[in-house]
Design goal:
The protein is mostly helical. About 60% of the residues lie in helices and about 10% in strands.
Length: about 325
């Protein structure tokens, strides 16, 4: 809509036209023009010489009073083309993931400080260490508290780096609060499953189980999002294959209970990944049926994760 000098809107002149898109090939323009013609929009073409290459550029034009309708039609046409090619439009991120990443870094860093300094005169390490015989009997909270303990600073730094990376990516899909609540639950579930599979007394510590759970959650949610008839099996299950590659590449090393490094505790990494993968359908269901952009949803989920963590540590230190 044009405006007069006094600010009042005026109707476009009958012969006024606007350029919408520019093409390097006439064939591409003709395909878009057919979509406009099907809706009765009077399209036109202006050929412009390219001063650099000498080749012509083609500009698709429409009457000014039909410009908005033409833009909507072309947007729908572009989406249809992507669907025909099996391309999924990238979803709009729920949030940046920064809040959840900062919360994760703060809590894990604080636990490491308490552990190394013996804060309040307490033995945080032995109280929260995942000891399979205890976790499977009288002290189940150890499968969660051990996620906050680390053997040394490099161990902590590694889990902070990769935990933040995959946590932020998952938060883009489901929001920070729900992402970290799911990561915490899946990490604890992964430790529990690993304890069931281990022979004898098994001890473990570190957030790596939760980090691989985040990978499983991420690739599971993305794979479910691609479940459309137009998406082939390769693109549908590609994220899970990528997650398996990451698991094989980074999951072969671990940290022993005493602090030594080596190819130990692979089971915790594998169980963490599959725990996240098994929980991912619930997250995908939440994406489909819940307004995850509502702040209350993310606040409630995040607060629940923090509350459960506090309760588990309270039990660990009390008993």
């Amino acid at each position: 809509m044009q405006h007069d000098h006094d600010g009042r809107p005026r109707a476009a002149a009958p012969d006024e036209r606007v350029g919408l898109l520019e093409f390097g090939e006439r064939r591409a323009l003709d395909d878009a023009a057919l979509a406009l013609a099907a809706q009765g929009i009077a399209w036109g073409v202006v050929a412009l010489p390219d001063a650099v290459s000498g080749r012509q550029r083609f500009v698709l034009t429409v009457p000014a009073d039909q410009a908005e309708a033409a833009r909507r039609e072309l947007a729908g046409y572009a989406l249809e083309l992507r669907q025909r090619r099996g391309e999924e439009p990238a979803p709009e991120p729920i949030d940046s993931g920064v809040a959840g990443a900062l919360g994760y870094a703060f809590l894990v860093g604080l636990a490491f400080l308490f552990q190394t300094r013996g804060a309040f005169g307490l033995d945080w390490r032995n109280a929260g260490l995942n000891v399979s015989t205890l976790a499977l009997s009288s002290e189940p909270w150890r499968v969660l508290t051990s996620l906050f303990l680390h053997a040394d600073l490099p161990h902590l730094a590694s889990n902070l780096l990769f935990g933040i990376l995959f946590g932020v990516l998952l938060a883009h899909s489901v929001g920070s609060g729900l992402a970290w609540a799911a990561i915490l639950a899946s990490g604890a579930f992964g430790n529990f499953a690993n304890d069931l599979l281990q022979a004898g007394v098994h001890r473990s510590l570190g957030a790596s189980t939760a980090v691989f759970a985040a990978v499983g959650l991420l690739v599971g949610v993305e794979s479910i999002r691609r479940r459309r008839p137009s998406v082939g099996p390769a693109r549908r299950y590609g994220p899970i294959l990528l997650g398996a590659v990451l698991l094989a590449w980074f999951g072969g090393g671990g940290v022993q209970e005493g602090g030594g490094r080596g190819p130990v505790d692979v089971g915790a990494h594998v169980m963490g990944f599959f725990a996240g993968l098994s929980v991912s359908p619930l997250l995908a269901l939440a994406v489909a049926r819940t307004d995850l952009r509502a702040p209350r949803v993310q606040v409630i989920a995040g607060a629940a994760a923090v509350l459960v963590t506090v309760l588990c540590w309270t039990a660990a230190l009390a008993f």
